[in-house]
Amino acid sequence: ETGVTQSPTHLIKTRGQQVTLRCSSQSGHNTVSWYQQALGQGPQFIFQYYREEENGRGNFPPRFSGLQFPNYSSELNVNALELDDSALYLCASSLAGTSGGGGTDTQYFGPGTRLTVL
Amino acid sequence: AQSVTQLDSQVPVFEEAPVELRCNYSSSVSVYLFWYVQYPNQGLQLLLKYLSGSTLVKGINGFEAEFNKSQTSFHLRKPSVHISDTAEYFCAVSMNRDDKIIFGKGTRLHILP
Fold first, then answer.
1. Minimal Cα–Cα distance from A85 to chain B, Å?
2. Cβ distance A57 to A76 under 8 Å?
3. What is the residue-level pLDDT of chain A in tens, covering all 118 positions?
4. Do B32 and A109 touch (CB under 8 A)?
5. Closest chain B residue to A29 measured between Cα atoms?
6. Chain A residues within 8 A (CB-CB) of chain B?
């Protein structure tokens, strides 16, 4: 069973640029959630994708956007980068059940992508 | 809305001593509770979770936590810590299955030789 993988591991960008981060979910999982972890803080929920649709969003501006593909992998895009976007970006996958349950109740996290904005 | 408070930002403890990391949560509805561990320069690993049933939950690496509904607490304990337990520990809540997870700010466990 393959775990959650993320790429790249590290990334350095300058203010105003755009960035795309990638996540491959654990085998058999159909839901991907993205979190931002600033230095010294707990992770904060950005958004979640289920079956290629956004399924919940945290308090992040529209310049944070995402995609989920038919194979359930996902991308996080951030436009017009700001210095405060520097953080560890974590992806987590889970298996959401259909109505009637069946989910795993557990999100499994990848190792993260560390983004530095200069 | 749910929130999580981890009462200690850092906890120093001697090797082989017991440790308790405190966590309180706030929610008007039933929640799922989690403890995650983050080793230096790594992602998050699930230690244990409480969904329902027995209030004492056992996790990996010898950790356990007790859900106390009246005190809205979910403290994490280990009877004897090792150097390898040095990490950041996050308490977290979720309202529904597969829902977003709300994390506390973390407690850094520092093991003293």
1. 18
2. no
3. 568 999 999 999 999 999 999 999 988 888 999 999 999 899 999 999 988 899 889 999 999 999 999 988 999 999 999 999 999 999 999 887 554 344 456 788 999 999 999 9
4. no
5. B98
6. 4, 6, 31, 33, 35, 40-45, 48, 50, 56, 58, 90, 92, 94-97, 101, 103-112
For an interface test with A, the pick among B21, B89, B99 (most A C-beta atoms closer than 10 Å) comes out as B99
| Residue B98: pLDDT band with limits 50, 70, 90 | low
Q: How close, in Å, is residue A17 to chain B by CA atoms?
A: 25
E runs forming strands in chain B: 3-6, 10-14, 19-21, 23-26, 32-38, 44-50, 56-58, 64-68, 73-78, 87-94, 102-103, 107-112
* Token reading at B10: 């850092």
**A13 and A81 Cβ atoms separated by less than 8 Å:** yes
Total number of residues shown for chain A = 118
